[in-house]
Amino acid sequence: MIYLIDSYSLLNTIAPNADGLPDLKAIIQRWHGERIRRIDRYIQLCVAGGLSCVAGRSLPENTGVYLASRNGAVATSARAMSSIEADGQLPKPLHFVNTLGNSAGFYLTQLLGLTGTAVVCSAEQLSFEAALTHACLDLQARQCDTALVGSFDETPLPVQHQRRRLNITDSQAPLLEGSHWLLLSRHAQNARAKLRAPEYTESLSQALRREDTGVQLAFSPNKAEASKLPGSHTVYNPVEGAIPHGSFSGAALVEQLKLPCGTHVAREGKTYCTVRWTSA
Amino acid sequence: MKISIRAFEARCSLGASVEPAVTNLLSGASSPRQHTFDNLQEPVTLPYFSAPPAGDFYRAQASCLNSLLERAQLSRTERRRTALLMGSSSFDVHISESQYRRELNTLGPEQALPMPIVGYGKIAQHLADQLALGPHRYAYSTACTSSANALLYAARLLQQDQADHALVLGCEHLNATSALGFYGLGLISPRGEMAPFDARRDGLILGEGTGALLLSKPSQTPASERRWQLAGGAIGTDNYSLTAAHVSGKEIAKVIRAALADADITAADIAAIKLHGTASLLNDEAEAAALHQVFATLPQGFALKPYVGHTLGACGALETALTLGSLARGTLPDNPRALGDGELAVPLLKEKRPAQPGYYLLNCFAFGGNNNALIIRDQGANE
Amino acid sequence: MPDAVTPELKHALKQMIIDECDKDELSPTDIQDDQALLGGDLDLDSLDVLQICMAVKTQYGVRIEGNTAAQRALKSIDTLADTIVRQSTP
């Protein structure tokens, strides 16, 4: 059995003409007083979200850390690339190391004193669910007793660059940045809910059952999909006009987890992923 | 449940497919070429292990995976029960770089978009659609352990019945960001030779390539294809330093012990070790220290990076495929040019030895302290 | 290229170290000319050393190559300024 101990979500709206990004340092400082140098926005999102979800708890050293990002360290990768291609210079060492997949997790595990399994995975719109699936595999196989699951994506400035990367043509659409987290355990102590591992299917009618309650979709259903929805549901739409991107489905799941029991459905291509929970 | 490794493929500096690559590996034929990055203000020339050209990057990955599906004759239904796990440190960043370069020329630096292609999971998603695979499609971005982690989670997915089969793909393609990033960190061998565990070691040489493996649940594997098993593995975190393992080797020793326990064997059961062996000063020291903590007497060891370079995110899958290819010929690869280093005391095989059925440890470690150890079991050709 | 060690050069080097190593909490006046840059209060590591050497190369055209040379040049602001002036004066 997998238990939800806590969750945390940070979702910032980045206006179409934004020339700055919301402060994350205050969130980090709440849990770690000393300023952490040499970390870029992407790593800050990881550390801010992860520390806030753990919220000062002391975790077992072998806690598994399951990270996801749909797009990774875009801003720093772009800086390294423009150093080379536009300026004809070598990428700065600090930029280069921050483009590597493990760097965000390195800072987080170091701050939390964790030395167990850590992995960074990605699966387009099901990236958060990918990290959750990996955590559930390891919890069920008793590879670890506690798991920290997080997905984070940045919106680097300038916004119009990121819109081009994401192929978003609406120049008025706000973009999002976020960091979404779950703390899971094999033990029921202090648990908020019992969670079932994500289930994957290719049909929406199989993704949902009649008895499902608190159904929330992390996507807008098209007509064909709408006709297959068995009962009442809501569609996660936190920011008017924003087109889902990055770790959006993580934001949706963490928001819906405020209900004592519920069902979350996300979609990528023809695949639907369902996560269900009931009160502990 | 021990997962079967039914088929594998490799493309690297040693050859365009696994058979010629293993032939060249066992004949010791390999040396890096030079690659010049000439659009820098001061051009840089680096040694590099280039793979034979394979045409369109995406199509090459698809055809490599498809060849494994065909070899195993997986039906349409079986393909729907097949997961795809891809590991890379750079994915298609080389295509991003060339798009950006084109835009710099046509639109100028104000308008050109750096890092135009984003989405680590895009390639796995496209490949799985193209090959009509099932819903588990994951990309791993843990730098040099990316495809080793993909292998481990492929086994775990199958053990828990989330799929019947899994394709694992590790790939790395020459790109300026990785090559010049490593060069900027001072990690590329100035002598242009990789000498792991050797007193003369002075750094690594990068390489490109693809390693691909097909894993199946034993119940879904014909008896004739059950020779190799992924018997176990583990991941651990060493957050001592962003760019180097703790030289005590403590965390690496822990991950090796966890892998042995996962495979339900002891250190004495290991027949040989495929070392990570990056030939960088500190990481070889850490790997050596860890091995001496785990093994009372070190088993035979060999390193593949002197032949194919450090293929970063691909090395887990690629070096596993090359190891299996060598075992299939009943021979352990050697490192005849290795002098060894009295201090590290990790003797590499000086000459080829017959490979015996048994358990093999495969080490793989990454920047950012992500460490992976896998255990492969060779049950021998006749079982 | 600087042809003499001046207070301005040293000030610029201090600011460069603060920027390159993300030591925002410091200002140039917090770093003494003869203070140990490595292994002292500044707590700079090997990654900082690489970062500083690359910035010196870009800004002053002076190469500091190899670990030994870097350790020697980065003993203090004084030695860094000396290294730059010595190597950029023909």
- Round the mean pLDDT of chain A to the nearest integer and report it: 96
Query: Per the principal axes of the C-alpha atoms, what is the gross shape of chain A?
Result: globular
Count of domains of chain A: 2
Query: In what range is the share of β-strand residues of chain B?
Result: 15-25%
Secondary-structure class of chain A: alpha/beta
Shape, principal axes of CA atoms of chain B: globular
Radius of gyration of chain A (Å):
19 Å
- Percentage of β-strand residues of chain A: 15-25%
| H-E order of chain A | EHHEHHHEHEHEEEHEHEHEE
- The first-level CATH class of chain B is given as Alpha Beta
Low-confidence stretches of chain A: none
Main interface by residue count: A-B, 63 and 68 residues
Q: What is the helix fraction of residues of chain B, given as a range?
A: 25-40%
In round numbers, the mean pLDDT of chain B is 96
Secondary structure: number of strands of chain A: 11
CATH class of the largest domain in chain A: Alpha Beta
At the fourth level of CATH, the homologous superfamily of chain B is: Thiolase/Chalcone synthase
Reported CATH architecture of chain B: 3-Layer(aba) Sandwich
Structural class of chain B: alpha/beta
User: How many strands, what sense, and barrel or not for the largest sheet of chain A?
Assistant: 11 strands, mixed
Protein name (chain C): Phosphopantetheine-binding protein
Domain Carrier (chain C): 7-88
Pfam family, one (chain C): PP-binding
InterPro entries (chain C): ACP-like_sf, PP-bd_ACP
